[in-house]
């Protein structure tokens, strides 16, 4: 927060506001030990700070602890944050170190955070590159000449507050490891207000079974129709199981939105990128399994069943619980920055209440969304 033109007001508590710089140097030269300077902006009336601050807000897509960052020029001046935190960027004057505050935390003072370019630099990506002064100098030069490829590395996402409008509802997307309970929670949410929430009917090339109805369990179409739809990118998600294709079509989602209902989706986590668009503006909720012990107990008590792709069911086994736990950690590491909320699905009624509350809040409260969705 120091800027060219700021004036020294105090040195170790001694008022020096209107003193000649030479006198200040004299005072400084007489001091030993730590020196604390109190600075103020040049303009009277303290408006300088306001004028300098920017309105940029970003969502952090990684965890950052200045105490573990050997590159930061001053660890005490760093701002610690977690993946998903919204940061108010106060200054981007320095190409490598931005100044930011935590959004919504009035007590948080501005601190240094690595700028996007620094975070995407080879020093960060490859820990083997020695973090020497020479490397830092090279980085500065590369940053200034724009040499870094900063395409795919998750650093910060610029966000803006989205104010919901009545009648146009954001789809709720429940993701998580297979069998964690996304469909169970979806069913319970829809049952809480059946006229308001709706689910999409998937498409399949599998032949209809006698007890099934067209457009109820699935929309049954031919394999050729499905393949041409996939090629034309009409599906946000598709996959093959036992020789049959299954998938969710984009127009199934948009028609629910146009009908003024809240669309609830439970796609594979890999489909997040296909649904996280300005057109759909989804709200993504990650369903996390509880601890391995609680997972086993709760599912055994409930006599839980694994549902297979084609609708058949089977019992859970120990491998299901273990792979769910391991996969959940991997999914959070890979996609965690895209989740708007996380629900731990331990006790079903509690998880359902939490989901109902989140659904209400998405309809009524402003939430941060990528700025590109609002432009
Ligand atoms: N919190 C819970 N406690 C006990 N049982 C649960 C809980 N949540 C879900 N279940 C049960 O676990 C089983 C699997 O749940 P569900 O089919 O909803 O999972 P899913 O995430 O939709 O899985 P899939 O990847 O197969 O679509 C169901 O029998 C469901 O009733």
SSE diagram, text form:
Elements: E1 7-11, E2 14-15, H1 21-30, E3 37-40, H2 48-52, E4 57-60, E5 86-91, E6 97-102, E7 111-114, H3 116-119, H4 122-125, H5 133-145, E8 156-162, E9 172-175, H6 182-192, E10 197-199, E11 203-204, E12 219-220, H7 223-231, E13 235-241, E14 244-249, H8 250-258, E15 262-265, H9 272-275, E16 283-288, H10 292-301, E17 305-307, E18 313-315, H11 318-335, E19 341-344, H12 348-364, E20 367-370
Parallel strand pairs: 9-15, 9-16, 10-15, 11-12, 16-19
Antiparallel strand pairs: 1-2, 1-3, 4-5, 4-8, 5-6, 6-7, 8-20, 11-14, 13-14, 17-18
Helix pairs in contact: 6-12
Bound molecules: adenosine-5'-triphosphate.
Protein architecture, described:
The chain folds into three domains: 1-46, no CATH class; 50-160, SH3 Domains (SH3 type barrels, Roll); 163-374, P-loop containing nucleotide triphosphate hydrolases (Rossmann fold, 3-Layer(aba) Sandwich), CATH 3.40.50.300. The protein has a six-stranded antiparallel beta sheet with strand order 7-6-5-4-8-20. Strands 10-15-9-16-19 form a five-stranded parallel beta sheet, sandwiched between helices. A four-stranded mixed beta sheet has the order 12-11-14-13. The protein contains twelve helices and 20 strands. The chain has 375 residues and is α/β, with parallel strands linked by helices. The chain is elongated. Mean pLDDT is 87; it is low at 44-51, 127-131 and 144-151. A hairpin with a 2-residue loop joins strand 1 and strand 2. Adenosine-5'-triphosphate binds at residues 176, 178-184, 266, 298-299, 302, 304-307, 345-346, 348, 351.
């Amino acid at each position: 927060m120091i800027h060219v033109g700021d004036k020294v007001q105090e040195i170790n508590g001694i008022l020096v506001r209107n003193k000649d710089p030479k006198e200040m140097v004299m005072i400084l030269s007489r001091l030993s030990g730590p020196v604390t300077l109190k600075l103020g902006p040049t303009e009277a009336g303290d408006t300088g700070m306001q004028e300098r601050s920017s309105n940029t807000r970003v969502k952090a897509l990684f965890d950052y602890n200045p105490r573990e960052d050997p590159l930061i020029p001053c660890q005490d001046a760093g701002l610690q944050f977690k993946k998903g935190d919204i940061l108010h960027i106060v200054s981007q004057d320095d190409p490598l170190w931005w100044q930011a505050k935590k959004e919504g935390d009035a007590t948080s003072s501005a601190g240094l955070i690595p700028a996007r370019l620094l975070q995407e630099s080879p020093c960060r990506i490859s820990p083997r590159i020695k973090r020497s002064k020479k490397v830092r100098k090279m980085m500065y030069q590369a940053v200034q000449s724009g040499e870094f490829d900063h395409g795919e590395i998750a650093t910060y996402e610029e966000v803006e507050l989205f104010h919901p409008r009545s009648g146009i509802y954001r789809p709720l997307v429940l993701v998580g490891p297979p069998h964690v309970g996304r469909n169970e929670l979806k069913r319970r949410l829809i049952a809480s207000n059946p006229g308001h929430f709706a689910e999409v009917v998937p498409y399949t090339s599998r032949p209809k079974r006698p007890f099934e109805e067209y457009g109820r369990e699935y929309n049954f179409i031919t394999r050729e129709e499905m393949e041409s739809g996939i090629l034309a990118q009409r599906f946000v998600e598709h996959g093959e199981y036992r020789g049959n294709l299954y998938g969710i079509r984009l127009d199934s989602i948009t028609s629910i939105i146009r009908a003024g209902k809240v669309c609830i989706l439970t796609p594979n986590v890999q489909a997040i990128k296909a649904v996280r668009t300005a057109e759909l503006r989804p709200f993504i909720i990650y369903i996390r399994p509880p601890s391995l012990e609680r997972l086993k107990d709760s599912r055994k008590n409930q006599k839980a069943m694994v549902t297979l792709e084609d609708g058949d069911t089977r019992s859970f086994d120990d491998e299901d619980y273990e792979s769910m736990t391991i996969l959940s950690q991997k999914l959070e590491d890979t996609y965690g920055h895209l989740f708007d909320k996380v629900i731990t699905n331990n006790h079903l009624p509690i998880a359902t209440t939490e989901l109902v509350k989140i659904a209400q809040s998405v309809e009524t409260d402003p939430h941060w969304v990528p700025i590109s969705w609002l432009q």
